[in-house]
Amino acid sequence: xxxxxxxxxxxxxxxxxxxxxxxxxxxxxxxxxxxxxxxxxxxxxxxxxxxxxxxxxxxxxxxxxx
Length: 66
What we know:
Blueprint: H1 8-28, H2 34-51
């Protein structure tokens, strides 16, 4: 089964919340709590995994395995 393709529009929609929170902090002086920062990190990590920018190693797939 092939991996699903993600277009640029879907990735922009995912990151829109992160950028809105950052702009609110920078321009409006809104408070960023620990929960918000963790959520932003999870969102960006998920986007990186979906785009292939960040690859996860699977257990048992070392260099010595064919």
